[in-house]
Amino acid sequence: MSQEHIKEFSYHIAWRSRSRRPGRHKSNQRGMGMEFRGHTTLLAYPDPRRIDIRQTIRDPLEQVHVRIFNQKSVTPVFVLCDMSGSMQYASTKQDGSTQKKIEIAADIAQSVAQSATRNRDLVGFIGFDDVVREDWLCTLSARPHTTVEMAESLRTYETEEVGSRGVTEIVRLLPRERSLIFMVSDFHMPIADLEESLVLMQRHHIVPIVLWDSSEYSDLPEFGITNVTDPETGAKRTLFLRKSYRDRILQSFTDRRIAIENLFLRYDMQPFFVENSFDADQLSEYFHQYVAA
After folding, report:
1. Residue 161: Cβ-neighbour burial (10 angstroms; 0-12, 13-18, 19+)
2. What separation in angstroms does the CA of 128 have from each of 15, 85, 227, 231?
3. pTM: predicted TM-score of the whole model, two decimal places
4. Burial (CB count within 10 angstroms: exposed 0-12, middle 13-18, buried 19+), residue 251
5. Cα 95–101–102 angle (5° rounding)?
6. Which of 120, 162, 156, 167 has the alpha carbon at shortest distance from 140?
7. Dihedral of the CA atoms 8, 10, 15, 16 (nearest 10)?
């Protein structure tokens, strides 16, 4: 997908950036901003452009005072992408073509890269399955093309049966500075692994983007025999489907969704569900609704 066709979304952060690099987010760094911070002497902050004549006249010690302002700064932005076997699930669209969940992840990663660059933020990419994929890493950069190109490669990526245990190792690649993290996955991993990763990454602001495809569970027949293969473990089973069994499968997906939502909300993370296609405008609305400006 060419960069001019990548859909962008608007976002903001709810904390003050500590970066010295100028950007568009509130920070606690002194600089050429518009947010008034206070006064100090010219000796402490030697910038004659900021001299406050009124404060200087009022000082009984006759020291020259300057106004101090906070600058706006950048914040690190990361895309964490699940590359496990279940992300290879493909559904058939109305035009007859197929689309994998990993392709939707590519759309999201490219949108994040473009949107972060528009905000003058640094963006990086980390792919994982049972391990952190060293061949699917992009270090933080102010230019989006590396992440955009890597995301484009996701569209043709194929894998054998592999899980997502590597989610617990991601934290070692993240900076100490608080970052905005878009965690893109179908979250078909064990709840214990997911919770462990959330605990390790608590210093960061995580936006869980849950990729589900309704055909995974809603298109099952009410009667018949079918063979299924677990895309992450390779386990094979033969199922005798009937209405009661189909209803149990549908209920298990409902229960799984509730369990995922409850886990994220326990750590003050509102999940963003994406079913069948990604809408950048809805992600903009997510930030307006759930992230304090």
Report:
1. middle
2. 28, 11, 28, 15
3. 0.85
4. exposed
5. 115
6. 120
7. 80
| Contacts of 206 by beta carbon, 8 Å cutoff, 6+ apart | 181, 183, 198, 267, 269
Q: Is 37 in contact with 50 (CB distance < 8 Å)?
A: no
pLDDT-wise least confident of 2-6, 127-131, 206-210? 2-6
Please tell me the distance from the alpha carbon of residue 196 to that of residue 188, in angstroms, as a whole number: 15
pLDDT confidence band for 231 (50 / 70 / 90): low
pLDDT band with cut points at 50, 70 and 90 for residue 2? low
> What is the distance between the alpha carbons of residues 251 and 269, in angstroms, rounded to a whole number?
24
**Rounded distance between C-alpha atoms, residue 199 and residue 177, angstroms:** 16
* Rounded Cα distance, 96 and 154, in Å: 21
Element (H, E) at 118: helix 101-118
Q: What is the pLDDT of residues 166-209, one digit of tens each?
A: 999 999 999 999 999 999 999 999 999 999 999 999 999 999 99
Residues sharing a CB contact under 8 Å with residue 130, sequence separation 6 or more, in sequence order:
84, 162, 163, 164, 165, 166
Show the tokens assigned to 173. 């690649």
Task: Give residue 130's pLDDT band: very low, low, confident or very high (50, 70, 90).
Answer: very high
Q: Is 127 left (phi over 0), alpha (psi -120 to 50) or beta?
A: beta
Tens of pLDDT along 64-85?
998 887 888 899 999 999 999 9
Using CA atoms, how far apart are residues 238 and 221, in angstroms rounded to an integer? 14
Count CB-CB contacts under 10 A for residue 274.
22
Mapping DSSP onto H, E and C, the string for 73-87 reads ECCEEEEEEECCHHH
> Identity (one letter) of the amino acid at 187?
F
